[in-house]
């Protein structure tokens, strides 16, 4: 410091902003967080990433709704004499069932009924778990004269379909059994055993 008159003035090499207790504090970087946020947003936009991008946040699967779910089970019996042949189509929509049993095109039974509410709701509630356990069958050539089973289930945007013949590897046989177990509550609800009896 140089003396001027009776006071003190800052010399040319001295900082007038320097306090008496230490050097001046640097300015607080208040805009840094905002700048970083802007940079991150720009980088995400440059990579084609959006907060609503389904690849980043995929929409959950639509649940099966008892009121919207429909089931169609088709069984084609083997080539046996007409009195022993029983093919059928079972459809259930919202708990309302329709069964048509035939013998080589000749209708043997055509009945409508209502699946008990508790049975239908339990069936639909278990679909997510049950269908996830049923894999894809191994493609095989149709087996002449053999049986075949087809199960189709839909509800809104959800669709499931499997169709298998009696010929095929053990994997296909296991899937057929899984499908039969899946629709067994519906078979029992409409008394399918009685409708397909040949006695």
Structure commentary:
- This protein has 199 residues and is α+β, with helices and mostly antiparallel strands.
- It has a domain at 70-195: Mago nashi (Mago nashi protein, 2-Layer Sandwich).
- 27% of the residues lie in helices and 27% in strands.
- The chain is built from 5 helices and 8 strands, in the order E-E-H-E-E-E-E-H-H-E-E-H-H.
- The protein has helices at 32-46, 117-125, 127-132, 170-189, 192-195, and strands spanning 2-4, 7-9, 70-76, 87-93, 96-103, 106-114, 148-155, 158-165.
- The protein has a 6-stranded antiparallel sheet, covered by helices on one side. Strands 1-2 form a two-stranded antiparallel ribbon.
- The longest helix is centred in the C-terminal third of the chain and has 20 residues, at 170-189.
- The protein is globular, with a radius of gyration of 37 Å.
- 14% of the residues are buried.
- The model is unreliable at 1-29 (pLDDT under 50).
Short description:
By secondary structure, the protein is α+β, with helices and mostly antiparallel strands. The chain contains five helices and eight strands, in the order ββαββββααββαα. β5 and β6 form a beta hairpin.
Keywords:
199 residues; alpha+beta; 5 helices; 8 strands; globular; disordered N terminus
For this structure, the CATH topology of the domain at 70-195 is Mago nashi protein
Q: How many distinct beta strands?
A: 8
Main sheet record: 6 strands, antiparallel
Relevant CATH superfamily of the domain at 70-195:
Mago nashi
Determine the structural class based on helices, strands and strand pairing.
alpha+beta
CATH hierarchy class name of the domain at 70-195 = Alpha Beta
- Measured as a percent range, the helix fraction is 25-40%
N-C termini distance: 122 Å
